[in-house]
């Protein structure tokens, strides 16, 4: 089977090369159409090859649970290790993500080159326990949110969401997974950096309620099956593994599903998050494993996902603020920079106040969570504030640039579109 696919891929690549040098395509104005068709066919072929080579073989391991942090103080300072991580993520965001963001948004494709950077950064190892070769010795929710997610999102919101999808799934499996699930997947994530994973939680229903799910799970002869439809799934057409929320015996639960023939995938382009190639997934009697052990908490699972979106919103809002300050100082009107106008200066000052407020609420919720204390109220407050203020900051960013803010010559319109996801998407990531 693999040899047949390899031959087909070779033929396809040969055809692409020959067609690329042909003038006929330009004469008939078919170049863009045919290149797009060949790209999709090539991607499908590589996906088929990938699926034949990726086999999840269980390796029996003790159940992993990262210990809670022991702390009595609400400490805002970073450790030396956290500071180094923060600087590395910030540098990567500015030097790599920022440069790739525009084209990724325009083409609505996640850059293939970014996966190599993920391996070089060792991003997934921050989520893997030390026993499996990772670096996580205890729950590091603050680091995951305010150091990794926020700093990366200063480069680009959409690309960060894609980069953190597998990282988030590893976090969720490490925190909640049963022995069976962890034995099946954690060693594979530790050994194979090419595995992509994501969440399928959102459903296309008005006023979507995370606790009333149309996707159903059933149990037959000790085997779980999933039926239903999920939408706005990040990297849905690229993922090998999905964490799927579904109703089981009248209660919401989460299941682990591998990509296969019982899942139909359709691209679902959205207003924002274009680089994540959002998709709609339809499950038809799809085999699954139940994620959680006896300590699984569905509400906490959702809260940790929402906090990740909030942290990314803070990072992108920082990017909006910095861009607006630079623009307002350079743009002159009536003989002086527009930053000298109180209406503009006050708008930027409000951004700074709101960003600090958002960050503080996230930090409060994250600190409680990693100490093992109740944090649902704090996470909910953080989500409400971030959903409202991030959209306001995105809107104000476009407003400060005036007509320029409405064009694609400046990144603020992209940030505005992406920030809308903070109020709309639930879970999809996990701190």
Task: Write structural notes for this entry.
The protein is α+β, with helices and mostly antiparallel strands and 431 residues long. Among the domains are: 35 residues, no CATH class; 127 residues, Butyryl-CoA Dehydrogenase, subunit A, domain 3, CATH 1.20.140. It is 53% helix and 13% strand. It contains 13 helices and nine strands. The strands form two sheets. Strands 1, 2, 3, 4, 5, 6 and 7 form a seven-stranded mixed β-sheet that branches. Helix 1 runs antiparallel to helix 3 and helix 11 runs antiparallel to helix 12. The two termini are 39 Å apart. The N terminus is likely disordered. InterPro entries: Acyl-CoA_DH_CS, Acyl-CoA_Oxase/DH_mid-dom_sf, AcylCo_DH-like_C, AcylCo_DH/oxidase_C, AcylCoA_DH/ox_N, AcylCoA_DH/ox_N_sf, AcylCoA_DH/oxidase_NM_dom_sf. Keywords: FAD, Flavoprotein. Belongs to the acyl-CoA dehydrogenase family.
Topology of this structure?
Layout: H1 2-20, H2 24-27, H3 31-53, H4 80-107, H5 114-121, H6 141-153, H7 157-176, H8 179-191, E1 197-200, E2 216-220, E3 223-233, E4 241-248, E5 251-258, E6 263-267, E7 279-290, H9 298-330, E8 332-333, E9 336-337, H10 342-370, H11 376-401, H12 412-419, H13 421-424
Parallel strand pairs: 1-4
Antiparallel strand pairs: 2-3, 3-7, 4-5, 5-7, 6-7, 8-9
Helix pairs in contact: 1-3, 4-6, 6-9, 6-10, 7-9, 9-10, 9-11, 10-11, 11-12
């Amino acid at each position: 089977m693999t040899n047949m696919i390899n031959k087909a891929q070779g033929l396809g690549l040969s055809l692409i090369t020959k067609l690329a040098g042909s003038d006929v395509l330009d004469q008939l104005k078919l170049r863009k159409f045919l290149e797009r068709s060949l790209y999709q066919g090539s991607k499908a072929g590589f996906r088929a090859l990938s699926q034949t080579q990726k086999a999840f073989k269980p390796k029996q391991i003790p159940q992993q649970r990262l210990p809670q942090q022991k702390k009595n103080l609400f400490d805002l300072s970073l450790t030396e290790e956290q500071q180094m991580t923060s600087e590395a993520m910030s540098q990567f965001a500015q030097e790599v993500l920022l440069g790739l963001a525009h084209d990724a948004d325009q083409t609505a494709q996640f850059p293939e080159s970014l996966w190599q950077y993920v391996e070089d950064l060792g991003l997934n190892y921050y989520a893997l326990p030390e026993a499996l070769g990772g670096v996580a010795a205890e729950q590091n929710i603050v680091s995951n949110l305010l150091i990794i997610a926020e700093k990366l999102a200063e480069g680009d919101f959409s690309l960060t969401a894609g980069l953190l999808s597998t990282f988030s799934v590893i976090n969720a499996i490490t925190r909640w997974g049963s022995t069976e699930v962890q034995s099946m997947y954690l060693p594979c994530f530790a050994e194979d950096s090419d595995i992509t994973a994501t969440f399928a939680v959102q459903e296309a229903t008005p006023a979507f309620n995370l606790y009333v799910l149309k996707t159903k799970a059933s149990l037959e002869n000790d085997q779980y099956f999933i039926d239903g439809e999920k939408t706005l799934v990040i990297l849905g057409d690229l993922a090998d593994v999905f964490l799927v929320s579904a109703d089981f015996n009248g209660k919401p639960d989460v299941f682990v599903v591998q990509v296969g023939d019982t899942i139909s995938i359709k691209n679902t382009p959205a207003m924002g998050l274009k680089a994540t190639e959002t998709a709609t997934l339809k499950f038809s009697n799809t085999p699954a494993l139940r994620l959680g052990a006896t300590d699984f908490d569905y509400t906490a699972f959702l809260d940790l996902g929402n906090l990740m979106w909030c942290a990314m919103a803070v990072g992108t809002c920082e990017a909006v603020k910095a861009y607006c300050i630079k623009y307002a100082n350079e743009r002159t009107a009536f003989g002086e920079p527009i930053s000298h106008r109180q209406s503009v200066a006050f708008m930027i000052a409000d951004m700074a106040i709101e960003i600090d407020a958002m960050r503080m609420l996230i930090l409060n919720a994250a600190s409680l969570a990693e100490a093992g204390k109740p944090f649902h109220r704090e996470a909910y407050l953080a989500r409400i504030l971030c959903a409202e203020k991030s959209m306001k900051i995105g809107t104000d960013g476009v407003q400060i640039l005036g007509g320029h803010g409405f064009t694609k010559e400046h990144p603020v319109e992209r940030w505005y579109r992406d920030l809308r996801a903070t109020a709309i998407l639930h879970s999809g990531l996990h701190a």
